[in-house]
Amino acid sequence: MRKTYESIVNNGALRQIAVMLLGTCILAFTYYHINAQNHLSEGGFAGLALLGHYAFGVSPAWSMLLLDIPVILLAWVLKGRRFMLLALIGAVAFSLFYAGFEKYSTLVIDLHGNLLVAALLCGVLTGLGAGIVLRFGGATGGDDILSLLISEWRGWKIGNVFIVSDIIVLGLSLLYLPVKETMFTILAVWLAGKIITWTTTFQLHRPVKKVLPAAIPAQKVVAKTVPIVHSLRQ
Protein backbone atom coordinates (compact mmCIF):
# COMPACT_ATOMS: atom_id res chain seq x y z
CA MET A 1 0.00 0.00 0.00
CA ARG A 2 2.88 2.36 0.77
CA LYS A 3 4.35 1.77 -2.69
CA THR A 4 0.95 2.47 -4.23
CA TYR A 5 0.69 5.74 -2.31
CA GLU A 6 4.21 6.76 -3.33
CA SER A 7 3.52 5.91 -6.98
CA ILE A 8 0.40 8.08 -6.94
CA VAL A 9 2.32 11.03 -5.52
CA ASN A 10 5.39 10.53 -7.71
CA ASN A 11 3.36 10.13 -10.90
CA GLY A 12 1.85 13.57 -10.51
CA ALA A 13 -1.53 12.22 -9.47
CA LEU A 14 -2.05 14.99 -6.92
CA ARG A 15 -3.44 17.06 -9.78
CA GLN A 16 -5.55 14.07 -10.79
CA ILE A 17 -6.94 13.76 -7.27
CA ALA A 18 -7.65 17.50 -7.13
CA VAL A 19 -9.74 17.30 -10.31
CA MET A 20 -11.52 14.22 -8.97
CA LEU A 21 -12.39 16.12 -5.81
CA LEU A 22 -13.89 18.85 -7.97
CA GLY A 23 -16.06 16.26 -9.72
CA THR A 24 -17.24 14.68 -6.47
CA CYS A 25 -18.02 18.13 -5.07
CA ILE A 26 -20.19 18.89 -8.11
CA LEU A 27 -22.03 15.60 -7.62
CA ALA A 28 -22.61 16.11 -3.91
CA PHE A 29 -23.80 19.68 -4.52
CA THR A 30 -26.26 18.52 -7.17
CA TYR A 31 -27.63 15.55 -5.24
CA TYR A 32 -28.28 17.66 -2.15
CA HIS A 33 -29.37 21.01 -3.59
CA ILE A 34 -31.31 19.79 -6.63
CA ASN A 35 -32.28 16.13 -6.23
CA ALA A 36 -33.01 16.00 -2.51
CA GLN A 37 -34.53 19.48 -2.24
CA ASN A 38 -36.86 18.90 -5.20
CA HIS A 39 -37.68 15.24 -4.46
CA LEU A 40 -36.03 13.90 -7.57
CA SER A 41 -34.45 10.50 -7.42
CA GLU A 42 -31.28 9.34 -9.15
CA GLY A 43 -29.90 6.19 -10.68
CA GLY A 44 -27.31 3.79 -9.34
CA PHE A 45 -26.20 3.75 -5.73
CA ALA A 46 -27.04 7.43 -5.40
CA GLY A 47 -30.63 6.61 -6.27
CA LEU A 48 -30.73 3.83 -3.69
CA ALA A 49 -29.26 6.20 -1.11
CA LEU A 50 -31.85 8.88 -1.93
CA LEU A 51 -34.62 6.30 -1.66
CA GLY A 52 -33.27 5.37 1.76
CA HIS A 53 -33.37 9.05 2.65
CA TYR A 54 -36.98 9.47 1.51
CA ALA A 55 -38.19 6.22 3.08
CA PHE A 56 -36.18 5.99 6.30
CA GLY A 57 -34.48 9.37 6.76
CA VAL A 58 -30.97 7.91 6.41
CA SER A 59 -28.39 10.39 5.15
CA PRO A 60 -27.11 9.50 1.65
CA ALA A 61 -23.65 10.58 2.79
CA TRP A 62 -23.25 7.39 4.82
CA SER A 63 -25.59 4.95 3.07
CA MET A 64 -23.71 5.47 -0.20
CA LEU A 65 -20.40 4.79 1.50
CA LEU A 66 -21.75 1.53 2.93
CA LEU A 67 -22.94 0.49 -0.54
CA ASP A 68 -19.61 1.46 -2.10
CA ILE A 69 -17.23 -0.47 0.16
CA PRO A 70 -17.92 -4.01 -1.17
CA VAL A 71 -17.59 -2.87 -4.78
CA ILE A 72 -14.38 -0.96 -4.02
CA LEU A 73 -12.94 -4.17 -2.60
CA LEU A 74 -13.95 -5.92 -5.82
CA ALA A 75 -12.17 -3.19 -7.77
CA TRP A 76 -9.04 -3.91 -5.75
CA VAL A 77 -9.09 -7.48 -7.07
CA LEU A 78 -9.95 -6.66 -10.69
CA LYS A 79 -8.30 -3.28 -11.26
CA GLY A 80 -5.44 -3.17 -8.78
CA ARG A 81 -4.54 -1.15 -5.72
CA ARG A 82 -4.05 2.15 -7.49
CA PHE A 83 -7.56 2.22 -8.95
CA MET A 84 -8.98 0.99 -5.65
CA LEU A 85 -7.26 3.79 -3.76
CA LEU A 86 -8.52 6.43 -6.20
CA ALA A 87 -12.04 5.00 -6.02
CA LEU A 88 -11.89 5.03 -2.22
CA ILE A 89 -10.79 8.67 -2.27
CA GLY A 90 -13.71 9.52 -4.55
CA ALA A 91 -16.26 7.67 -2.42
CA VAL A 92 -15.06 9.15 0.87
CA ALA A 93 -14.83 12.64 -0.65
CA PHE A 94 -18.41 12.43 -1.91
CA SER A 95 -19.68 11.40 1.52
CA LEU A 96 -17.79 14.22 3.22
CA PHE A 97 -18.94 16.82 0.70
CA TYR A 98 -22.57 15.67 0.97
CA ALA A 99 -22.45 15.64 4.76
CA GLY A 100 -20.96 19.14 4.69
CA PHE A 101 -23.68 20.50 2.42
CA GLU A 102 -26.33 18.73 4.47
CA LYS A 103 -25.12 20.25 7.73
CA TYR A 104 -23.86 23.70 6.78
CA SER A 105 -25.38 24.80 3.48
CA THR A 106 -28.14 27.40 3.69
CA LEU A 107 -28.72 27.47 -0.07
CA VAL A 108 -32.21 26.41 -1.16
CA ILE A 109 -32.91 25.75 -4.85
CA ASP A 110 -36.68 25.35 -4.95
CA LEU A 111 -37.72 24.15 -8.40
CA HIS A 112 -40.88 22.26 -7.47
CA GLY A 113 -42.81 24.53 -9.80
CA ASN A 114 -40.48 23.80 -12.71
CA LEU A 115 -39.20 20.25 -12.50
CA LEU A 116 -38.05 20.40 -16.12
CA VAL A 117 -35.38 22.93 -15.16
CA ALA A 118 -34.47 20.81 -12.14
CA ALA A 119 -34.10 17.72 -14.33
CA LEU A 120 -31.96 19.54 -16.89
CA LEU A 121 -29.70 21.01 -14.22
CA CYS A 122 -29.42 17.65 -12.52
CA GLY A 123 -28.55 15.86 -15.76
CA VAL A 124 -25.90 18.34 -16.84
CA LEU A 125 -24.22 18.70 -13.44
CA THR A 126 -24.24 15.02 -12.47
CA GLY A 127 -23.02 14.04 -15.92
CA LEU A 128 -20.25 16.61 -15.76
CA GLY A 129 -19.22 15.68 -12.22
CA ALA A 130 -19.18 11.93 -12.82
CA GLY A 131 -17.54 12.37 -16.22
CA ILE A 132 -14.70 14.42 -14.77
CA VAL A 133 -13.97 11.78 -12.13
CA LEU A 134 -14.09 8.91 -14.63
CA ARG A 135 -11.97 10.75 -17.19
CA PHE A 136 -9.23 11.21 -14.62
CA GLY A 137 -9.15 7.54 -13.69
CA GLY A 138 -11.27 7.46 -10.56
CA ALA A 139 -14.80 6.68 -9.51
CA THR A 140 -17.34 8.40 -7.30
CA GLY A 141 -18.82 5.20 -5.97
CA GLY A 142 -19.64 1.57 -6.47
CA ASP A 143 -22.06 2.13 -9.34
CA ASP A 144 -19.34 3.99 -11.26
CA ILE A 145 -16.99 1.06 -10.76
CA LEU A 146 -19.58 -1.49 -11.87
CA SER A 147 -20.46 0.59 -14.94
CA LEU A 148 -16.78 0.95 -15.81
CA LEU A 149 -16.16 -2.79 -15.47
CA ILE A 150 -19.21 -3.64 -17.59
CA SER A 151 -18.17 -1.07 -20.20
CA GLU A 152 -14.69 -2.59 -20.47
CA TRP A 153 -16.05 -6.14 -20.49
CA ARG A 154 -18.79 -5.64 -23.08
CA GLY A 155 -17.29 -2.76 -25.04
CA TRP A 156 -20.34 -0.56 -24.48
CA LYS A 157 -20.23 3.19 -24.09
CA ILE A 158 -20.00 3.92 -20.41
CA GLY A 159 -22.78 6.50 -20.57
CA ASN A 160 -25.16 3.88 -21.97
CA VAL A 161 -24.25 1.49 -19.16
CA PHE A 162 -25.10 4.21 -16.66
CA ILE A 163 -28.47 4.78 -18.32
CA VAL A 164 -29.43 1.08 -18.20
CA SER A 165 -28.37 0.59 -14.58
CA ASP A 166 -30.06 3.82 -13.55
CA ILE A 167 -33.38 2.88 -15.13
CA ILE A 168 -33.43 -0.32 -13.07
CA VAL A 169 -33.02 1.69 -9.87
CA LEU A 170 -35.57 4.25 -11.02
CA GLY A 171 -38.12 1.46 -11.34
CA LEU A 172 -37.84 1.10 -7.57
CA SER A 173 -38.39 4.84 -7.19
CA LEU A 174 -42.02 4.35 -8.17
CA LEU A 175 -42.53 2.68 -4.80
CA TYR A 176 -41.79 5.93 -2.95
CA LEU A 177 -42.04 8.80 -5.44
CA PRO A 178 -44.90 10.08 -7.58
CA VAL A 179 -44.82 9.21 -11.27
CA LYS A 180 -44.20 12.85 -12.22
CA GLU A 181 -40.96 13.13 -10.24
CA THR A 182 -39.83 9.73 -11.50
CA MET A 183 -40.39 10.71 -15.13
CA PHE A 184 -38.36 13.89 -14.73
CA THR A 185 -35.66 11.87 -13.00
CA ILE A 186 -35.51 9.56 -16.03
CA LEU A 187 -34.93 12.63 -18.20
CA ALA A 188 -32.12 13.75 -15.89
CA VAL A 189 -30.52 10.30 -15.93
CA TRP A 190 -30.68 10.08 -19.72
CA LEU A 191 -29.07 13.50 -20.08
CA ALA A 192 -26.42 12.66 -17.49
CA GLY A 193 -25.50 9.51 -19.41
CA LYS A 194 -24.97 11.51 -22.59
CA ILE A 195 -22.88 14.11 -20.76
CA ILE A 196 -20.76 11.36 -19.17
CA THR A 197 -20.06 9.81 -22.57
CA TRP A 198 -19.11 13.19 -24.01
CA THR A 199 -16.94 14.17 -21.03
CA THR A 200 -15.01 10.90 -21.02
CA THR A 201 -14.44 10.68 -24.79
CA PHE A 202 -14.04 14.17 -26.22
CA GLN A 203 -10.64 15.16 -27.55
CA LEU A 204 -9.20 18.61 -28.03
CA HIS A 205 -8.09 19.07 -31.64
CA ARG A 206 -5.21 21.49 -31.67
CA PRO A 207 -4.40 23.25 -34.93
CA VAL A 208 -1.40 21.78 -36.70
CA LYS A 209 1.45 24.24 -36.80
CA LYS A 210 3.36 24.49 -40.03
CA VAL A 211 7.05 23.93 -39.51
CA LEU A 212 9.02 26.56 -41.38
CA PRO A 213 12.57 25.85 -42.51
CA ALA A 214 15.10 27.11 -40.04
CA ALA A 215 16.79 30.36 -41.00
CA ILE A 216 20.42 30.09 -42.01
CA PRO A 217 22.66 32.00 -39.59
CA ALA A 218 24.16 35.16 -41.06
CA GLN A 219 27.73 34.03 -40.31
CA LYS A 220 27.29 30.89 -42.41
CA VAL A 221 25.85 32.93 -45.28
CA VAL A 222 28.84 35.27 -45.21
CA ALA A 223 31.25 32.36 -44.97
CA LYS A 224 29.74 30.77 -48.07
CA THR A 225 29.50 33.94 -50.16
CA VAL A 226 32.98 35.33 -49.49
CA PRO A 227 34.86 32.61 -51.44
CA ILE A 228 32.48 33.11 -54.37
CA VAL A 229 33.19 36.85 -54.44
CA HIS A 230 36.95 36.23 -54.36
CA SER A 231 36.71 33.78 -57.23
CA LEU A 232 34.77 36.27 -59.35
CA ARG A 233 37.35 39.00 -58.75
CA GLN A 234 40.13 36.72 -59.88
Automatic annotation (TrEMBL):
Coiled coil: none annotated. The chain crosses the membrane at residues 12-34, 54-76, 83-101, 113-137, 158-177, 183-202. It holds the Pfam family YitT_membrane. It is a multi-pass membrane protein. One of its GO terms (cellular component) is plasma membrane. It comes from the Bacteria. This is Membrane protein. It is found in: Cell membrane. Keywords: Cell membrane, Membrane, Transmembrane, Transmembrane helix. InterPro entries: UPF0750_membrane (IPR051461), YitT (IPR003740).
